[in-house]
Amino acid sequence: QVQLVESGGGLVQAGGSLRLSCAASGRSFSRENMAWFRQAPGKEREFVASVTWNGYKNYKESVKGRFTISRDNAKNTVYLQMNSLKPEDTAVYYCNTHPPLSVYWGKGTLVTASS
Asked: Beta strand 67-72 with 18-25: parallel, antiparallel or unpaired?
């Protein structure tokens, strides 16, 4: 079974921080570009951040300077460090390959930033 499992979400005050983890199992994802996506209530899922197999990073403009994507290929894990959280960051966060494959969508992890 190949899957990606997100964790680390929670409820924080605006301005706070969270670190999300995406643990892959079943096969190595070290040769894959990876990304984080999010879906707020009533809205479409959107791209947040990506990291290529060789370390190039890209971000949604509104999270630049606040979020940092990283990966640890030895642990088959991708991370998203989120600082200075804003209420508009509230969403379910998902990881996947980039571009995403439908078979890898998991349950996500809920991030709530309250003011």
From this structure: unpaired
Written as six digits, the tokens of 112 are 């709530």
Which of 72, 115, 11, 26 lies closest to 80 in space, CA to CA? 72
Compute the CA torsion angle 78, 38, 33, 105 (nearest 10 deg).
90
pLDDT in tens, 19-46: 999 999 999 999 999 999 999 999 999 9
For 106, the token pair is 């998991």
Q: Give CB contacts under 8 A, 24+ apart, made by 62-71.
A: 62/88, 63/89, 69/34, 69/35, 69/36, 71/34
> What's the rounded Cα separation, in Å, for the pair 94 and 35?
8
Question: How confident is the model over 93-108, as pLDDT tens digits?
Answer: 999 999 999 999 999 9
pLDDT band at 72 (very low <50, low <70, confident <90, very high): very high
Total count of residues recorded for the chain: 115
